[in-house]
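pasting input
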Amino acid sequence: AQKITQTQPGMFVQEKEAVTLDCTYDTSDQSYGLFWYKQPSSGEMIFLIYQGSYDEQNATEGRYSLNFQKARKSANLVISASQLGDSAMYFCAMREGRHTNAGKSTFGDGTTLTVKP
Amino acid sequence: GAVVSQHPSRVICKSGTSVKIECRSLDFQATTMFWYRQFPKQSLMLMATSNEGSKATYEQGVEKDKFLINHASLTLSTLTVTSAHPEDSSFYICSARASGRRYEQFFGPGTRLTVL
């Protein structure tokens, strides 16, 4: 069974600094995808970044980058130059299977990030 | 593009009544839709997966007779909470996946259900 672990219930970061949110996963499948989502207080889930298990390069999307260490089964999210609007809950998720309609996403417990001015 | 809407965004109902929540993919065809439940400051718990035109697949512990899911078209899925009780109060989020989109899963804004 797949499992996602986020060990940081809450994190604080100073505005304009970088922050790393931890995520480790457990799966026996060779093919899987890793995702990070942002959920502000409004409740909407916002997709941030994706990393495929076969992708050799770490994924990057603007200020977001994913530090993918396959051997350690970790997929940490790095947010550079934090902004006040980054304050939200962040979820790491994994989906097993290669095909688009295969597999369901499993979510971690989330990390609440607070950006301080 | 790839917008998912949910209606209503917020609903308050009396215990014993049924509530229907609609999830629509506005600009794409959703071959697969997911329904999640989220308690305050907790993770998303998958309730069921539905594919257009077929019966939903429910996760272990989710009562299919209580949470009726209908995925009648490629753009609409509904979740009906039947005979709602206060313990059903929660934030319900739907998500859709488009055919041909390798990995993306698009989420609706959620529906906050309060059962009195």
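fyi The radius of gyration of chain B is 13 Å.
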